[in-house]
Amino acid sequence: MKNKRTLDKLGRPFTDLRISVTDRCNFRCQYCMPREIFGKDYPFLSRDELLTFEEIARFVHALAPYGLGKVRITGGEPLIRKDVEELVAMLREQGPGLDLAMTTNGSLLPQKAASLKGAGLDRVTISLDSLDDEVFMTMNDVDFPVEKILDGITAAEEHELLPIKINMVVKRGVNEESILPMAEYFRGRGHILRFIEYMDVGSTNAWKMDEVVSAREILERIQAVHPLERIDPNSPSEVAKRWRYRDGKGEIGLIASVTDPFCGSCTRLRLSAPGELYTCLFAHQGFDIKGLLRGGASDQELADFVFSLWARRDDNYSQKRSQSGPSDDGKVEMSYIGG
Ligand code: SAM
Ligand code: SF4
Ligand code: SF4
User: Fold this and answer.
1) Atom of ligand 3 nearest to the CA of 317
2) Whose CA is nearest to atom 4 of ligand 1?
């Protein structure tokens, strides 16, 4: 029997689970679910293919005793999964000390923030790629205005889903001019703005290296106006490099997944909406958890399955990409596996 001390082949422990609760989304961000592919004929999963909330909670329950400290609910857009706050409440029951977070595009937070907090969600990460409506609408491709995301952020503040992190994916020629305005807007507001290098997830976003704006360039653009200094990570597995404004107006994070990969400290598993477990964001293949859950596996059998998989894990795609370039096909889509 494997246990919480199980390390993978690169010496990494398991601490962190991301759960995608739907492969659907009300946005069509070009870098994630381009409209040309995810159109009205796209074969999204049907309701009965998805794991139920009971099944998800059962899986978390089985892993909770083995070093699982953090669960993030994601998607697709998690807030379009009906009654997702019921799942939050069920996960909260698995452990009062579990760090329970959600990544969302924020569009439905004005309606949902209160019930999420009431159900026991600790905090949210909200994605926002620009404060300029024209840029943001081009990126979300459903004409969704910035103002409504800001309303979502306000709702999260009011209901203390804190600390709030804001994710901004930066794509060359699309929103690099939004870097400084975003930094200036969130400076002093107590939220942590995190800049994410555009990644080659999935096989549909036609990623090219020259569309990546490096974390270094992002930092330089902000540093030129607002001096920053490096600060220590909150935990060894934190993916963002933290920098704080020298004038005390808060901090930013830089997620250099492409130019400075962090596979060496990657302690995550991802559970897809239909119940497959992935050991890497760039994996081609998942492992069937739904079959185990529906086939009557015990908690111990579930944990044994996961940790024997973990013991065989040797993923380090981003590091390999740095050495030999991107692999171009068969990777699972981010909206499916959960970003
Ligand atoms: N719909 C939710 C949202 O947008 O926050 C949750 C799912 S989304 C897949 C999770 C995160 O992945 C978002 O912050 C999004 O911006 C980021 N993301 C999606 N595609 C990406 C890409 N190609 N490169 C970098 N980040 C990406
Ligand atoms: Fe939807 Fe989030 Fe992907 Fe945008 S990044 S398409 S909001 S899942
Ligand atoms: Fe983790 Fe895979 Fe990303 Fe490396 S490429 S940090 S192993 S998810």
Assistant:
1) 5
2) 105
DSSP string, 150-178: HHHHHHHHHTT--S-EEEEEEBTTTTGGG
Read off the pLDDT of residues 95-123 as tens digits, 9 standing for 90 and up: 889 999 999 999 999 999 999 999 999 99
Residue 6 located in a structural domain: no
Q: Is 323 exposed, middle or buried (0-12, 13-18, 19+ CB in 10 A)?
A: exposed
Q: What's the CA gap between 94 and 103, in Å, rounded?
A: 20
- CATH code where residue 110 lies: 3.20.20.70
The answer on pLDDT for 201 being more than 90 is no
- Round to whole Å and give the CA distance between 104 and 35: 19
251 DSSP β-pair partners: 244
In this predicted structure, what is the pLDDT of residue 291? 98
Ligand 3 atom closest to the Cα of residue 281 is: 8
Ligand 1 nearest-atom number relative to CA 199? 24
Q: 245 is in which domain, residue-wise?
A: 16-337
Q: Fill in the DSSP letter of residue 64.
A: G
Q: Which two tokens stand for residue 197?
A: 């290098």
Pocket probe mutation, ligand 2, options 28, 30, 74, 77, max atoms within 8 Å of Cβ: 77
- As a 3-state breakdown, the chain gives helix, strand, coil percent values, each rounded to 5, of 35, 20, 50
Cα(188) to ligand 3 centroid in Å equals: 32
Ligand 2 center–CA 127 separation, angstroms: 8
- In angstroms, the first-to-last Cα distance of the chain is 30
Q: Is residue 7 part of a domain?
A: no
By most ligand atoms within 8 Å of CB, the mutation choice from 14, 270, 282, 334 for ligand 3 is 282
- pLDDT value, residue 1: 47
Percent of the chain with pLDDT over 70: 98
User: Does some domain include residue 193?
Assistant: yes
- In one-letter notation, the amino acid at residue 144 is F
Nearest bound ligand to the CA of residue 28: 2
Domain count, the chain: 1
pTM above 0.90, yes or no: yes
